[in-house]
Design brief:
The complex is a heterodimer of chains A (515) and B (168).
Chain A: H1 2-18, H2 23-39, H3 45-56, H4 61-78, H5 80-85, H6 95-106, H7 110-144, H8 148-165, H9 170-184, E1 187-188, E2 195-196, H10 210-229, H11 245-254, H12 256-271, H13 277-290, H14 304-326, H15 333-344, H16 358-389, H17 394-411, H18 416-434, H19 440-463, H20 467-470, H21 472-497, H22 503-508
Antiparallel strand pairs in A: 1-2
Chain B: H1 3-26, H2 31-68, H3 78-110, H4 112-126, H5 131-152, H6 161-166
Helix pairs in contact in B: 1-2, 3-4, 4-5
Classes of the chains: A mainly alpha (515), B mainly alpha (168).
Chain lengths: 515, 168
């Protein structure tokens, strides 16, 4: 009982923190930016992170994190507006929603679909929060059993999971994760005073800076593609009326079990590094189709086809946040960036986040829930005008985004080295994106590399190499790592010998775009 | 061989070489400083070898498939059109990267505050946006950067090389 009382008190304190004068106003700014990014096809959460990190670094740590999380939480909510009204998903995470949302709009029920999607997002995040609170005692017990060796193995497991699930090829994903780890080792070694991989370039003596790399590798390829495709929506809206407020709510209440199922699937998908928004969305959509009495009605305007993916995608965000702040293992690319900011701002993932700083952890989870509620209210109030943003031309968006990125890349170190690194990684990012070499494991490796090296150093320093043989949890994690690497390879060989393609192979192609 | 396959081969070999170079470069370091780079390099090397093997297997299987179906030719006109489309795409992408490179050089030369609004204006005009949109966007960006970043957040942008050279 004492444990639950402590958790509930921390949950209450966390919720109260959200509404303090420091956090709430910046959260609102994050929400507005996130809503804009979700609406404009081709942009999305990762570009949002890239653009907002420089500003978040000048804030108080928790305010900066709340600012980023609020932005990220709502991109997958407003992306529903173009998906439903125009049939064009704002981000890749709204593809499943558009399958049934757009037919509903054609029937004149756009308001119902949008309202149902907003409520489903809110309920989805609440399901994820409830699951977090429910499993927190177990999580706390697990985290207390871990020492440096276990944390090192966990970081490696997270990286290998991300490398194996983000993309089509296991080997490519793991090479990219290794490349990220290697980049994280560029620094001036304090023990010898010798630069390690940095040569005479003073700029690199403090390590490869995160910000220009993230901006280059994620944002430049997206912006170049946006400019190349000249995305501007020519479709006309069927129905932009703000209606169906109660109808959508009734739909959600009627399908409460579906929301719990989709929310649980989304939370689990978020928790596993390398999966992410799209997988959560399609898993939830699949479960809705599988459990429906009339599966043939999907794709023709079944409201359950809107509710399930929205609940799943929304629940994925808190799901991905949990391993990020407790174990230092980001659930997806966006959370890898949050972890990077976390470390830059001087916060440290680990046992503290579920003990003395549990209220701060809960604050972050609540930020995602509250951001969804606020964004739903704003979307309902401003829907008619928000639709107009979908028509923004790429020739207007591209130079403004490139300019903001250029400023953002320079803000942390205020050095021209940032500008050059930003361009180099932009070119690399474009090649990686189009050659289907996943970029998320690279960034995760770069961010987690420093943590992993510290854990490895402390493990060998404290236990020699005995930590490899004497600790059962290390063995368990090692077995899981081997299974993660070997099992998909065996499965693939099995399927290719039978001339089929495995489910995971199909699913994994969807995982990188927008998280 | 498709271009994406070629890129795969180049990247795999590059990563393989990178991992070997990394091991050589840290060889002289004390054990604690070279342990982690060794782990990362081993990971890259191992999976680069796996990737090489998989590319080789794919190439062999596609070669066998091509030998078994010699009469299988692309339909008339389509291939040429596709290549033209790809070439046009590559040209557009190169031009866009050229624009970004130009912006990088401009930023180094004349600084963020002037280079970026100038870039925004020129890009929009080249894309046939109306003059008023280009002016408002470029001006708005300058005002935002100056008031929010420089004046309020005290961001000190690096001094551009031109200012340095001219001793201003």
């Amino acid at each position: 009982m004492g444990e639950f009382a402590f958790i509930l008190t921390a949950a209450g304190a966390g919720l109260a923190q959200v509404f303090t004068g420091d956090i709430f106003p910046m959260m609102l700014v994050g929400i507005f930016v996130g809503m804009f990014l979700g609406l404009v096809p081709g942009l999305g959460g990762l570009i949002g992170f890239a653009l907002l990190i420089p500003f978040s670094l000048s804030m108080e740590p928790l305010v900066g994190i709340a600012f980023l999380l609020a932005m990220s939480a709502v991109t997958t909510q407003t992306d529903t507006i173009p998906a439903v009204i125009l049939g064009v998903p704002g981000t890749a995470a709204a593809m499943a929603t558009s399958l049934d949302g757009y037919p509903l709009a054609k029937k004149g029920q756009a308001g119902r679909a949008l309202c149902a999607s907003y409520y489903a997002s809110i309920f989805g995040t609440l399901v994820a929060t409830a699951l977090f609170l429910l499993f927190l005692p177990i999580l706390r017990a697990v985290i207390f059993a871990f020492g440096q060796p276990e944390f090192f193995m966990l970081v490696m497991l997270g990286l290998i999971l991300a490398g194996s699930l983000a993309g089509n090829s296991l080997a490519r994903g793991l090479i990219m994760a290794g490349f990220g780890l290697l980049l994280s080792t560029v620094t001036l070694e304090t023990s010898t005073g010798e630069p390690r991989f940095a040569g005479d370039i003073l700029y690199l003596w403090e390590g490869v800076p995160l910000l220009p790399v993230i901006l280059g590798i994620f944002a430049i390829p997206e912006v170049v593609d946006l400019a190349r495709r000249k995305v501007s929506i020519s479709a006309t809206a069927y129905d932009t009326r703000v209606s169906g407020l109660w109808w959508g709510l009734k739909d959600c209440i009627r399908n409460w079990w579906l929301i719990i199922k989709a929310g649980t699937l989304g939370t689990v998908a978020g928790f596993i590094p390398g999966l992410g928004g799209q997988v959560a969305e399609w898993l939830a959509y699949g479960s809705a189709v599988a459990s429906d009495k009339d599966p043939s009605s999907f794709g023709k305007g079944n409201i359950r086809g809107v509710i399930a993916p929205e609940a799943g995608t929304a629940a994925q965000k808190p799901g991905a946040l949990i391993p990020t702040i407790t174990f230092g293992i980001p659930g997806n690319g966006g959370m890898a960036i949050v972890l990077g900011v976390f470390l830059i701002l001087g916060l440290r993932p680990g046992p503290e986040m579920v003990t003395t700083k549990l209220d701060s952890t809960m604050m972050m989870v609540w930020v995602i829930v509250v951001a969804n509620v606020v964004a739903a209210i704003l979307a309902l109030l401003l829907q008619k005008w928000l639709v107009l943003l979908c028509y923004l031309r790429s020739s207007v968006i591209v130079p403004l985004v490139v300019g903001t990125m250029m400023v953002g890349a320079t803000m942390a170190n205020q050095s021209f080295g940032d500008v050059i690194l930003f361009f180099i990684f932009g070119v690399l990012g474009y090649v990686f994106k189009h050659a289907d070499w996943p970029r998320v494991p690279l960034i995760m490796g770069l961010i987690m590399g420093k943590l992993a090296e510290q854990y490895l150093f402390l493990s060998t320093n404290l236990h020699g190499f005995k930590w490899l043989t004497d600790r059962p949890i290390v063995w368990v994690i090692a077995v899981v790592i081997v299974a993660v690497v070997v099992v998909p390879a065996i499965k693939r060989a099995w399927y290719s010998s039978k001339g089929q393609q495995g489910f995971l192979t199909q699913e994994s192609t969807l995982s990188e775009d927008d998280k | 061989m498709t271009s994406s396959r070629l890129v795969d081969i180049v990247l795999t070999i590059s990563f393989c070489i990178l991992s070997i170079l990394a091991v050589i470069m840290v060889n002289e370091f004390p054990f604690r400083d070279k342990l982690f780079p060794y782990v990362a390099s081993a990971m890259i090397f191992l999976f680069a070898i796996v990737s090489c093997a998989s590319i080789y297997a794919d190439l062999r299987s596609s070669k066998n498939a091509a030998q078994n179906q010699p009469e299988n030719r692309p339909s008339e006109g389509r291939l040429g059109d596709g290549i033209a489309g790809v070439h046009q795409d590559i040209r557009i992408v190169l031009r866009l990267f050229g624009f970004i490179l130009l912006l990088v050089l401009l930023v180094l030369l004349i600084g963020h505050l002037i280079a970026i609004p100038l870039f925004i204006f020129v890009y929009m005009k080249m894309q046939n946006e109306p003059l008023w949109i280009a002016v408002i966007s470029a001006g708005g960006f300058f005002v935002f950067t100056w008031t929010i970043l420089v004046e309020t957040m005290n961001v000190a942008f690096p001094i551009p090389y031109l200012v340095d050279w001219l001793g201003l």
